[in-house]
């Protein structure tokens, strides 16, 4: 059973941290936008106590204090403090969507702590040379991120005026949400219950400098992408595969943003072999 505790950080902020327990290697889950940080039930149930799942609510979500101006690098610092509080020295990282980008940043900054990385449908850095960053995104997703690129005031106004629209999911995504990945319904609502701060700070972070270079990752990296993804197009994965030393890219042509997680179990097998 996943339990949580609140950790007080040196600057006085609260970070809500989750821990499944277990006697296996530790894997730190990085959640997407907008989610709270509870590790994914389909994977927790699949691994049982053979994996110790750790995670946290990023600042502004759930039980974690907002931290305006945070970057991918600053969240990586929070993650290592969470691991310290739980008595975990070395761990793998795994993330989906924007959480995949945070997982990569954590690995780039803490090679002494991170043993391996799985990033599914992760955004590449906004400054990525040679990548048409918005190409292939759904209109709703592109508008959300272009508003962030225009600055905090523009992003806040965009969120205040936004209405639900097509997120860019394909048929395979909707089918996945009808199955075990309907778990997302349990983590999206609570993430927004306290307002849009977490989402706004996430999107601002994606279009700002990461504060680290994914090209400096020394841990093994596995990248999972759906060829039909209209939320984070697979060209982001191709760019990361070229720039992360030794990265392996697994591209699933028929999958979208959610359904790519059907391949997370095989990714965990890959991760287990590199997390000793």
Outline the structure in words.
The chain has 276 residues and is α/β, with parallel strands linked by helices. The chain has a single domain (3-272), classed as Rossmann fold (3-Layer(aba) Sandwich), CATH 3.40.50.1820. It has ten helices and eight strands. The protein has an eight-stranded mixed beta sheet, sandwiched between helices. Strand 3, helix 1 and strand 4 form a beta-alpha-beta unit. Helix 2 (72-85) crosses helix 3 (98-109), helix 4 runs antiparallel to helix 5 and helix 4 packs across helix 8 (197-206). The radius of gyration is 17 Å and the shape is globular. The two termini are 23 Å apart. Residues 25-263 form the AB hydrolase-1 domain. It comes from Micromonospora cathayae. Pfam families: Abhydrolase_1 (PF00561).
